[in-house]
Specification:
- By secondary structure, the chain is an all-alpha fold.
- The protein contains 5 helices and no strands.
- It is elongated.
């Protein structure tokens, strides 16, 4: 199998790099601690909808972090950390936007009202594409995205 070969090569290279950088004698090749793929997928889906987990804990500053050392078979811990950091960032944006959208109307301000208006115009344009008002709605949408 491909994954097992990758894991073995990665451990060998990591061990050789340790020898080269420290000058120490080679140590036995230790297996990578592998996380459950099923649990990782569940945690990934949860972080994308703003739910914390053991893989993606939520910090005090309302930002998702990534538990160090997450790895699955067939990937390096470094590449997995880069991917998970990006997904944690998406989850953070989703969570903050969700909190923002639940604030009371007077705290939302003009940006939120603008988003609601654009969303309304877009929906109207979609549902009235065969209507004679469609060109006007489309024109409003185009000018609002340029502005």
């Amino acid at each position: 199998g491909g994954r097992e070969v990758f894991d073995q090569l990665y451990r060998l290279l990591e061990g050789e790099m340790r020898v080269v950088s420290t000058g120490a004698t080679p140590s036995p090749v230790l297996p990578l601690p592998l996380d459950s793929q099923t649990q990782l997928v569940s945690d990934l889906l949860n972080v994308l909808i703003g739910v914390a987990s053991t893989t993606f804990p939520l910090s005090q500053s309302v930002q998702f972090e990534v538990r160090p050392g997450v790895c699955v078979s067939g990937t390096s811990p470094e590449s997995m950390a880069r991917l998970l950091a990006e997904l944690a960032q998406y989850g953070t944006h989703y969570l903050r936007l969700s909190h923002f959208s639940r604030q009371s109307a007077h705290k939302r301000g003009l940006v939120f009202q603008g988003v609601k208006l654009l969303s309304y115009l877009y929906n109207e344009a979609q549902s009235n594409c065969s209507n004679e008002n469609y060109p006007v709605l489309l024109s409003l949408l185009k000018s609002s995205y340029v502005a």
